[in-house]
From TrEMBL:
Protein species of origin: Solibacillus silvestris (strain StLB046) (Bacillus silvestris)
Source domain of life: Bacteria
Lineage of source species: Bacteria, Bacillati, Bacillota, Bacilli, Bacillales
Keyword set includes Transmembrane: yes
UniProtKB keywords: Membrane, Transmembrane, Transmembrane helix
Transmembrane segments: 57-78
Protein name: Negative regulator of sigma-X activity
Length: 407
C-alpha cells in the first residue's frame, strides 16, 4: 500500500494487526533483571548464545521497536494528511493572492461571456441588407434590369449594378442605350449559377425605334408554347425594358404582326409601363432557397390603396404575402406620397430581420410601381436597416439587387 493512499480507517486496521505484547512483571523486577544482566554497564552487554537458557530479550525489544516505528509512521502520515487538509482549508479560505487570482479569473470569465454575448447579439440583431436600388447608386454604376426565368415559368425582376468602367470596356461607349446594354451583357450572364433557367438573350432580333422596342421573332421560337411560356415572355419584357421603352412591337421575320397560338395576331404593341404594369409585390422563393420580391402573376391595379390592401391576402402557393403576421395597416394616398400607418406600434426588432425588410421593401416597391413614395407611421424605430422613418422613404428605381461580376 502506498503512503499517499492511506486513510484513517486503513491506519486503524493496520495498527490492530500489529503484535500485542504483554508483561505482568513490576518495574522493579524488570530493572533489577536488566541490571543483573549488565545492561547499564559501560561494556557492551553479553550476547547469549542460542544454547543458553533464560529469558530472550531480543524479541521483546524488536516488538517494542516495531510498535514505536508504527506509531511514528502513523503520526507522520496523520500529520501529512492534516497538512494537506490545512492546505485545502487555506485554499478555500483564500489568501489575498488567491483571491486576486480568482477575481482575475472571474473577470476573464465575465469578459468571455460578454464577448460571446456580443457575438450572439451581432448574429441575431445584425441589420438586414437592402435589396432595392436607388438613383444615388448610379453615380459610379450602370443599372442592368432583366427578367429571369424562375422555377414556375414566371419572370422574376432582377437588378445588377455594373461599374461604369466595365460597361465602357464591354460596350465601347460610356453611355450605351438600354438595348446595347442588354445585347452586350445578357449573353455573359450565367443564369443557372444564380439558380434560374437559361433564357437570355432573346431569340430573334431586337431593334430600337424611338421609345418603341421591336422584337422580330423567328419561326419555332416557342415563346407561345403554352400560356405559362407566353406569360413568362411578356413578363420578362416588362422586367427588362420598361424603364427605357414604352412599348414592344412584336413581329415575325416578314415584318408582320406576330401570331401567338393562344391569343392570335398581336396587332397592337405590347405596353410596358402603363396601368397594366402597376403591381403589388409578394415574396417568391426559388427551390434553391433564394427569396425575391415579385408581382403576383402580373396582377395589376388602378390605385395604390387597392394594391396594398391586396397584399394582406395570402394569394397562392407560389406568391406569399410580405406583410408580417398580426400586422394591420391603413393606407392614405395623397398625391406623390402614400402614408402607411400601422394600427399598433410596430417594433421591427420583434421580427426576423430579413422578413421585416421584405415587408418594408415590398410596400415601398408597390408604391413605386405607382410612381409614389411611402411615409411610414407608428414604427417604434426611427432609424432601421438604413431607412429613416421620420420622413418619406426615397422612391427606388429597381428591385432584387444581386451581386454579379461579368468576366
Amino acid at each position: 500500500m502506498k503512503k499517499e493512499h492511506w486513510d484513517e480507517k486503513e491506519i486503524e486496521l493496520f495498527l490492530k494487526k500489529a503484535p500485542k505484547v504483554t508483561d505482568h512483571r513490576s518495574k522493579d523486577e524488570v530493572f533489577n533483571r536488566l541490571k543483573d544482566d549488565g545492561a547499564f554497564n559501560e561494556d557492551p552487554p553479553h550476547i547469549q548464545q542460542n544454547n543458553q537458557k533464560g529469558i530472550r530479550w531480543t524479541p521483546l525489544f524488536v516488538s517494542i521497536a516495531s510498535i514505536f516505528i508504527i506509531v511514528l509512521i502513523s503520526a507522520q502520515f496523520i500529520g501529512n494528511n492534516e497538512s494537506v487538509t490545512m492546505q485545502n482549508e487555506t485554499f478555500d479560505i483564500q489568501t489575498p493572492e488567491t483571491e486576486e487570482n480568482m477575481t482575475m479569473s472571474a473577470k476573464e470569465d465575465a469578459s468571455t461571456q460578454n464577448e460571446r454575448s456580443m457575438i450572439n447579439s451581432f448574429t441575431t440583431e445584425a441589420q438586414p441588407e437592402q435589396t432595392l436600388v436607388y438613383e444615388n447608386e448610379l453615380a459610379d454604376n450602370t443599372l442592368l434590369e432583366i427578367g429571369l426565368a424562375g422555377d414556375d415559368a414566371e419572370s422574376v425582376p432582377v437588378s445588377i449594378l455594373i461599374p461604369n468602367e466595365v460597361v465602357a470596356e464591354k460596350t465601347g461607349t460610356e453611355n450605351p442605350s438600354k438595348l446595347e446594354l442588354y445585347n452586350t451583357f445578357s449573353p455573359l450572364l450565367d443564369e443557372q449559377s444564380l439558380g434560374f433557367n437559361e433564357y437570355h438573350p432573346y431569340k430573334g432580333e431586337l431593334r430600337e425605334e424611338g421609345n418603341t422596342l421591336v422584337h422580330i421573332l423567328p419561326e419555332g421560337h416557342q415563346y407561345d408554347a403554352g400560356t405559362a411560356s407566353l406569360s413568362n415572355y411578356l413578363g420578362s419584357l416588362v422586367d427588362t425594358f420598361s424603364d427605357a421603352y414604352t412599348e414592344v412591337q412584336i413581329e415575325n421575320i416578314s415584318g408582320k404582326p406576330i401570331y401567338f397560338d393562344h391569343i392570335g395576331d398581336v396587332n397592337e404593341p405590347f405596353l410596358l409601363n402603363d396601368e397594366n404594369a402597376q403591381y403589388n409585390y409578394f415574396m417568391y422563393q426559388m427551390r434553391n432557397g433564394a427569396v425575391y420580391l415579385s408581382p403576383n402573376f402580373r396582377m395589376s391595379f388602378t390605385n395604390v390603396e387597392e394594391a396594398i390592401k391586396n397584399m394582406t391576402v395570402e394569394a397562392n402557393d407560389i406568391y406569399r404575402t410580405v406583410i408580417l403576421p398580426g400586422v394591420y395597416l391603413k393606407v392614405e394616398d395623397a398625391q406623390s406620397v402614400v402614408t402607411i400607418t400601422f394600427e399598433e406600434p410596430l417594433n421591427l426588432e420583434n421580427y426576423e430581420p430579413a422578413q421585416a425588410m421584405r415587408m418594408i421593401e415590398g410596400l415601398i416597391m408597390t408604391a413605386a410601381s405607382f410612381d409614389k413614395q411611402v411615409k411610414f407611421e407608428n414604427i417604434v424605430q426611427e432609424q432601421w436597416g438604413g431607412f429613416d422613418f421620420t420622413k418619406p422613404v426615397e422612391k427606388p428605381i429597381a428591385a432584387n439587387r444581386i451581386h454579379y461580376e461579368f468576366q
